[in-house]
Design a protein that fits this description.
By secondary structure, the protein is α+β, with helices and mostly antiparallel strands. It has ten helices and 19 strands. It folds into two domains: about 130 residues, Creatinase/prolidase N-terminal domain (Creatine Amidinohydrolase, Chain A, domain 1, 3-Layer(aba) Sandwich), CATH 3.40.350; about 220 residues, Creatinase/methionine aminopeptidase superfamily (Creatine Amidinohydrolase). The strands form five sheets. The protein has a six-stranded mixed sheet with strand order 4-3-2-1-5-6. A five-stranded antiparallel sheet has the order 11-10-12-15-16. The longest helix has 24 residues. The radius of gyration is 22 Å and the shape is globular.
């Protein structure tokens, strides 16, 4: 559980950042519509009801004098009691009169511009500096992330140790979602592929097929707005030898995650590693991941992504070959990368000084 005082202090610091951006832009208000920004500004609150959507059942409007949650009378009491810490006021409109919200925002902005994460109706986009600031996680966010990562990894391990060849991909994905929900984690994405479909698709949504001799399970696991991303495999028999070559590719990419470098430098390091492994085309067959945090991927690494890497950023890279992938969520700290989704009970191999997950060879 997050302490109220610590959470209130975190929110106060974030509101100060937003108000400084308001002053610099000469704008009247900042309107945060997305579930990602709602979680960030409230210190881990959730506006999610329909989990497939980008926007939730509430927004946050910040002016120099007020931080206000905009919602309707269906959601207000639950949000006030369970999701939003002290320090916010509420504007509650009848569910059948959504136009009242637009009037309230216009009045709060006092005729000046409204900045928004998802601009609409004449809003202006947020300054790029705010996006960069959000990706650098503070101490409280990092603590929440560590707990989420550990529990998401435990859920993954629990499921794959129970998996059997006669399970369908739906059963495997369902067991994964169940293991996450029981830990209070939203299964924002669960992919599963068995023996036949595994080499065919990089993003295999589950099907009715039996998993057979091997299977992959992928999580984008969300709690307090943060995403823990990880991929694991189970094999009923010997695992493929090519997994070690993929680990070497990943190791090259991870070694390039250094403060002051650009995200594109990581991409180029991975591209070089693929060439060294005689897998030149692999980098074009699937994205390589990138910065994570309040989105499963805040920014995906490309050959031209100039975003500068900073301590406090989180990363989820997912290099892959046909039928093989490796992925964990890392936090960049003073001592380098910390694996947030590491499970010490899962079989692992030391690769360039870092424990990396092997395939589970089940009986």
């Amino acid at each position: 559980m997050m302490g109220v005082q610590a959470r209130t202090a975190e929110v106060s610091d974030k509101l100060a950042v937003l108000r400084a951006a308001l002053q610099q832009a000469g704008a009247g208000a900042i309107r945060l519509r997305g579930m990602d920004w709602f979680a960030w500004v409230t210190g881990g609150g959730s506006s999610a009801v329909l989990h497939a959507a980008e926007t939730g059942v509430a927004e946050v409007l910040v002016t120099q004098d007020e931080a206000c949650v905009l919602t309707d009378e269906i959601e207000a009491e639950r949000l006030r009691n369970e999701e939003v810490p002290p320090g916010f006021t509420f504007h509650i409109e009848p569910w059948a009169e959504p136009e009242l919200r637009a009037r309230f925002v216009a009045n709060a902005a006092g005729g000046r511009a409204v900045l928004s994460d998802r601009p609409a109706n004449g809003d202006q986009p947020l300054p790029l500096g705010l996006r960069q600031h959000r990706m650098v996680l503070g101490p409280a966010e990092q603590d929440r992330y560590r707990t989420l990562g550990r529990e998401a990894a435990e859920a993954m391990s629990e499921v794959l140790r129970r998996a059997r060849p006669d399970w369908t991909e739906y059963e495997l994905a369902g067991a994964g979602a169940d293991a996450l929900w029981r830990r209070g984690i939203h299964p924002a994405l669960v992919l599963a592929a068995g023996e036949r479909r595994l080499p065919l698709y990089r993003h295999p949504t589950p099907s009715h097929e039996r998993i057979g001799r091997r299977a992959m399970l992928v999580f984008c696991a969300r709690r307090h707005g943060l995403y823990a991303n990880l991929t694991r495999f189970v094999s009923f028999g010997a695992a493929p030898e090519a997994q070690r070559a993929l680990m070497d590719v990943e190791a090259t990419g991870l070694a390039s995650v250094v403060p002051g470098k650009s995200l594109s430098a990581v991409y180029h390091a991975l591209a070089q590693a693929y060439r060294h492994a005689d897998r030149d085309e692999a980098i074009r067959e699937h994205h390589q991941g990138g910065i994570t945090g309040y989105l499963a991927r805040e920014i995906v690494a490309t050959a031209s992504t100039a975003t500068q890497l900073e301590p406090g950023m989180a990363f989820a890279f997912n290099p892959s070959f046909e039928g093989l992938k490796i992925e964990d969520t890392f936090l960049l700290g003073p001592d380098g990368l910390e694996n947030l989704t590491f499970d010490p009970a899962w079989p692992a191999l030391d690769v360039h000084g870092r424990k990396r997950p092997l395939w589970l060879e089940a009986q």
